[in-house]
Each structure stands twice: as C-alpha cells, then as structure tokens.
Amino acid sequence: MLKKQAIIGSMLIVAVAVAAVLIYQNNYANTPKTTQNDGFTMVYLSDNSTLLTDLDVCSFNSTHQEFTLTDAAAQCLRAAGDNLYNFTNPVSIKVNGEEIYRGIFRSAVMSAVPEPPTVAILYPSITFPGGAEKDNAMRLFHPGFTPPSDMASMNANLASFFEDTNRLAS
Asked: Which helix (H) or strand (E) covers residue 158, if one does?
C-alpha cells in the first residue's frame, strides 16, 4: 500500500512539473527581450530587416545632421557595397519605434535623389569644404537639397533622443 502511494505521489509531482513547464512556455518563454522599438533603428521598408541599431551609433551631430558610427557598423555598410545604394529599397529611420525619416543611401558621386524619400543618406559622409570621406559617418540630406517644412520637428526628435542618451554632438 505504501509503495502504491509513493508511485501515485511521484506521478502527481511529475504532472505538476510538466504543467508548470507548459504554462511557462506559453506565457513567458516567447516574450522578446528587446524590440525594434528600443532606441534608434534603421530598417529596410521592403522586409523590415534591421540595418543599424542604437548600438551602432556613437553620436549624432544635429548641426551637420551627421551620425558617427562604430567601426563595426561602418564595416557592415561598406560590405554592402553597391547594394547599399539601391533607390528602390528605402529605409526607415526610427526612434523608439516612431518613424522620423524615410530615406535612401547615396554616395557623393550620385546626383540629387528624386522624391519621395524624406532624406538622402550620404555614406560615407564627406567633410565640407575639404571633401575628405569619413567612413565611420553618414549624413542626412534632403532631396533636391530643399528641407521639408517639418524638418525642425523631425530633427528635434533625433536631437532629443541622442541628448537623452548623452550622444548629442555639437
């Protein structure tokens, strides 16, 4: 009789353990630890794949609209080669999930970018007036070099985010 109670008790403990594991998996195991809504992100609009994240940006200079990138991020952009400069695959620049700009990458030798992107992203960035390329930086320009009417508020959102994270350069 005692042996029968021990077996039933063991089975009950196993059943409770299995139930606990199933409840955990259904409610907690699939919860993402981070999302694309955290910090700065740059994603391709075609498939929502991430090109750059908050960890890739060292600073943002709001005066020159220039992002200083980590060496790893710059290497990633260089590795994309000519595929980076694809006018049919725009990117979305977001802060905490809110789209600030839509843009496409261009190099210094390309002509002005046609509408509709909000910005052209010059990579590698170029210092003016000298013209030296900066491989670890990208700069925002406006198509036709005419800023949109809401540029001040869009830039304020970027500047505010990078100021809050102590990465705003002047």
From this structure: helix 151-164
